[in-house]
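Quick entry between incubations.
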Amino acid sequence: MSKQRGFTVWFTGLSGAGKTTLATLLASELATRGRRVEVLDGDEVRTNLSKGLGFSKEDRDTNIRRIGYVSRLLARNRLGVIAAAISPYRSVRDEVRQAIEAEGAVFLEVFVKCPIDILAERDVKGLYKKALAGEIKEFTGVSDPYEEPFDPEVVIETDRESVGASATKIIQALEKRSLLPVSYTMLESALTDLDLATL
Amino acid sequence: MSKQRGFTVWFTGLSGAGKTTLATLLASELATRGRRVEVLDGDEVRTNLSKGLGFSKEDRDTNIRRIGYVSRLLARNRLGVIAAAISPYRSVRDEVRQAIEAEGAVFLEVFVKCPIDILAERDVKGLYKKALAGEIKEFTGVSDPYEEPFDPEVVIETDRESVGASATKIIQALEKRSLLPVSYTMLESALTDLDLATL
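Done. Structure below.
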């Protein structure tokens, strides 16, 4: 356990795309696999680290850098982190990636993708309606930019797949990088695949 | 190692009292004893987490709460932290203590004490001269309050003891709480103290 590398699973995507829901399920799945992680959720972090910051590019970048700083401290101590914030600007996401990779930890960018017309239709918090009516300024995807990742490690399409299926995709990406303890189920299925007669 | 409890050694004291110097030496001593720690230094944290905050009571409290939040995330994952910020207000220090202890981690308040006339005499950064001349507003100990801890776990008198002796006092306080791996030297000295003839 203690020899494992640290990592940060970095969610990026529009408001309402499903980042927090997926982060919560993923954290719980990882815990059952023996890898407890810290979840740094955008809204919670805005309370704890970024009260007073607004939604200008500069303030958004500062907020993301702070989440990046805390992720780096945790990941360089071999811990796992899930960061879930809109993080609309590519350059700051890349800056955080570089800082974390420079510590020998893994940065896994997960694009939580959902078309904006579907988000506006769902509109769980009623924010899209207000944003489209011009009542909220600087609303990402409507009146403020969102820069999609060029080459994210994982793409989640929350309008086409279940949250369970999405979590599994991320878990597989972590397993591929040897970031999770090997489970009995995995060993068993590997052994089943072996043709014992050839041994 | 991985079963060890997390802890935060929280330095509080006036500017120039020696918090950063002691934090650096202590971190290095702890590393040689197999316990790597993260140092959250006041100045560095102001850059990474609190840019834009000033020195009003409210802003100082916010800054300390942020250091406390990060300390808590690290300590609840069984890591060791040294926080070194002036942290002039008792109530916020106590708030951070409670949050960290609530996670089952240890909070060790270290009062880094030095009389203000000696600090003004040393005046390494030339700040006391300016503060006493009224050129710096809100300077802790001169034009802004400093509330000494009522019952800190360790008191360091930087005008009377060497930095090495101070570090040793803190290490002993950590050892007393079983927060450091047992060293060969300690085992050896414990064995030497035993009267083998009585066994």
